[in-house]
Design goal:
alpha/beta, 2 domains, ten-stranded mixed sheet, globular
């Protein structure tokens, strides 16, 4: 199963063998043996490419679940004798500010060196779905006020306003406060439409009764900042995040959009590594077992 997953993820038998630390002939032999047992080919092989067959597509999710279950069983046994090991998969929006996540991960790594840590950056709605599916153990989100992530457990960490970000030579750079109506005629750099990072800004402009044009839809804040620095548009970012871009000018908004940051985790009992990580962040045993959708 590990060999099948490796080939599916690399689309290459040689790279899969390198990842699994075996010679290619052994990997190919074991996959061929599995295919005979299953009575179906899992891969179409040509001289140029390797791709899953329909049978392989059906087999892959179950194989991943079986491997995760085996790894979870090993981690549970280790935890029973006082050792935390296994995998910790964390997700985070790029603009998380409620916690110094790199520092938190470093502290956890120094304390639990047998745990393999992975981190995925993405939009809040994507991270919620990955936690629901179990591919992430925990995630840090940014959501409009009043919006609660569904199908997961969690805690609200912090709230804060957004500020306008402009180039230092922008005509509004000398202003201390502005209304959203002052920005309505500016081209905007913002997150893609429909994402949580965008919804809060769109809602604020709608509430102010003004329309704006989003000329640049960007997912990475640093790329967003580079466009703003060139004078191509105005952006809005959390006030607690603006120190990341000292070369831009922040302007407070009288009718600012607001967001809440959340920490979420699975509605099912967390694996030992995830439970240890959440405990290090101050999440109590009672919170770990609280019904989904009831942020504290």
């Amino acid at each position: 199963m590990r060999y099948v997953v490796a080939v599916a993820e690399t689309n290459n038998f040689t790279r899969a063998a390198e990842r699994c630390l075996v010679v290619q002939s052994a990997l190919s032999h074991q996959i061929a043996r599995l295919e005979r047992e299953l009575g179906a080919r899992l891969f179409d092989r040509t001289s140029r490419r390797v791709r899953l067959t329909p049978a392989g597509e059906a087999f892959l999710p179950a194989a991943r679940q079986a491997l995760e279950a085996a790894e979870r069983a090993q981690a549970e046994v280790a935890a029973a004798v006082g050792e935390i090991r296994g995998r910790l998969a964390v997700g985070a929006i790029p603009t998380v500010t409620a916690i110094d996540l790199p520092a938190a991960l470093k502290r956890f790594h120094l304390r639990h060196r047998e745990v393999r840590i992975t981190l995925r950056s993405g939009a809040s709605e994507e991270l919620v779905e990955r936690v629901r599916q179990g591919t992430l153990d925990a995630a840090f989100l940014g959501l409009p006020l009043g919006v609660r992530p569904q199908g997961v457990r969690g805690r609200e960490l912090a709230r804060g306003d957004l500020v306008a970000m402009v180039a230092p030579d922008h005509p509004l750079a000398g202003e201390e406060h502005v209304d959203l109506s002052r920005l309505a005629d500016e081209p905007f750099v913002d997150f893609p439409a429909g994402t949580a990072g965008r919804i809060q800004s769109d809602a604020a402009f709608a509430a102010a009764g003004v329309h704006r044009e989003v000329a640049f839809e960007i997912t990475a804040p640093d790329f967003m900042a580079r466009l703003i620095r060139q004078g191509l548009g105005v952006g809005m970012l959390p006030a607690a995040f603006v120190s990341e871009f000292p070369y831009l000018t922040a302007i407070r908004l009288r009718d600012a959009p607001s967001r809440a940051e959340h920490l979420i985790w699975s509605r099912f009992r967390p694996a030992p590594a995830a439970a240890a990580f959440l405990s290090a962040l101050g999440i109590s045993t009672a919170e770990l077992s609280r019904p989904p959708g009831t942020d504290g």
